[in-house]
């Protein structure tokens, strides 16, 4: 396996050949990534040739349904789950909301408590906390107020009485950036008789989850932040999916991937998700892993992505570490974090983002729906942070452009 061929990677994304984006370095990837060519091609083809009700006996309908099924089966294989353990929804926020309603009904009968963190994006926090209105006990696993670290040692005391049924936490926070030890946390929860729900939105763009290795019962992420169309992807192990009350139409309850889909799916967006599998397979084949089974291909691509990101992240973190006019949120070591870098500044952050734009840096400032972790870190959410986020298609030259721009803008 060679190192990541950044030229090949960027050739798979039409955005990099768009004249309107020339000279612009994209550092807002945590809010939504560029879309790879196979997804765009599939989406365009579906709207041109297959925009009919799927699963009917005529040719266009058959092709539409087959492509939707292809998306589910190929993505499931890349992540090590059964085909019907993967379902699509309009977004991760919507999928988590539906899931919380199912848990509400389950715990109303069974009783018990749930654990949430204050490191999460609000989508994996607020919906669970609102279950307290139904008398369900909600326990908070809190981050270190200085570093944002979610200490695994803080979980066992919350589980000690055996009442916790579900532990909800992020693979990594969209502002702290630290990669949490998911497998360790899931093993701890399982030993205490609790299921786990992992918000993978901020991690999946850096490598699709290997569900067997992680040991999670539920894992959610957003395709539109992972080079795809605007869909949320929900992975749920059969044991949990069959235990929770269905939230879709009653006559669909017997189909696992329809149990938590209250409305009809967006056919074209689901079909286009097969393009994500096309892209992973193309990366694997280009780098010598094309003959491996699907899960091995995904693991190989994951390694390539992370190695490239770590190499590019190191000089940026080194540059930020020596400045005394900002606070870098999260770890200082690139191996332990995603390349999502949030900065609390000694000045308003919105004008800094605007000034970076003049240097060709596309970034943003705000609270990023991470109000709870910012408050826990002593940062006023109204003031917010500057967030700089990149992925494997980011080039070394773009990181250099960012570093020069930061020096110029922060020197003012």
From TrEMBL:
Question: Which molecular function term from Gene Ontology is one that the record holds?
Answer: lyase activity
Any signal peptide, and if so, which residues?
none
List each copy of the Aminotransferase class V domain by range: 26-402
Q: What residues form the membrane-spanning segments?
A: none
Q: What Pfam families does the entry give?
A: Aminotran_5
What sections of the sequence does the record tag as coiled-coil? Answer: none
Keyword list (alphabetical) reads: Lyase, Pyridoxal phosphate
Full protein name: Selenocysteine lyase/cysteine desulfurase
